[in-house]
Amino acid sequence: MKRSSPPYFSAFIRGEGGWGGDRGPGGARNEPPERDPDHAVTYQTSPDQAFVYRLSGDRNPLHTDPQFAAMGGFDRPILHGLCSYGFTGRALLHALAGSDPARFHHIEGRFSSPVLPGDALTISMWRTGDGEAVFHTAKDDGTVVIDQGLVRFG
Predict the structure, then answer these.
(1) What distance in Å separates the CA atoms of residue 141 and residue 118, rounded to the nearest whole number?
(2) Is 63 a catalytic residue?
(3) DSSP state letters, 31-60
(4) Which of 94, 130, 141, 149 is spaced 20 to 30 Å from 9 by Cα?
(5) In percent, how much of the chain has pLDDT > 90?
């Protein structure tokens, strides 16, 4: 099988910046109201979660190789961002959309801190209108790992 183009790899390295473009609009978005969440769901990731998620095809060594993770400034490999996002989406789907994917219309959020395999993730949700909620995902120590979350469901 002949490839039409070479494989490409991109790296996003926190704190490096310098790409020269406009940073875009800043400021808080999708902030939770000053009250307890309407729903909170906790899922435990497993210590080997990155190896399991790797089966999705994402073989970035940042998630499995301690030496490579150290080059990125991490004490040990971190969990794939999309795996953390997947845990979040599952909680939102079950808590807000009645476990029906046809009712799950939109999700957005901002990755704000890494997750380590084995961390427990708590997804807190605040209904803000008919078919809409804001959310964030946090580790057991309270560190928010996905913030500015918005979900739309029907």
Answers:
(1) 13
(2) yes
(3) PPPSS--SEEEEEEPPTTHHHHHGGGS---
(4) 149
(5) 73
* Cα 154 to Cα 152: distance, rounded to the nearest angstrom: 7
38, 63, 105, 140: which is the annotated catalytic residue? 63
**pLDDT, tens only, 47-68:** 999 998 888 888 889 999 999 9
The model's pLDDT over 34-51, given as tens digits with 9 standing for 90+, comes to 999 999 999 999 999 999
Place of tokens 């909170």: 40
Of 38, 39, 58, 94, which residue is the catalytic one? 58
Residue 76 CA to residue 128 CA, distance in Å, equals: 38
Question: pLDDT value at position 127?
Answer: 98
Q: Tell me whether residue 58 is one of the annotated catalytic residues.
A: yes
What was the pLDDT predicted at 56? Answer: 86
Residues 133 and 107 sit within 8 Å (Cβ to Cβ): no
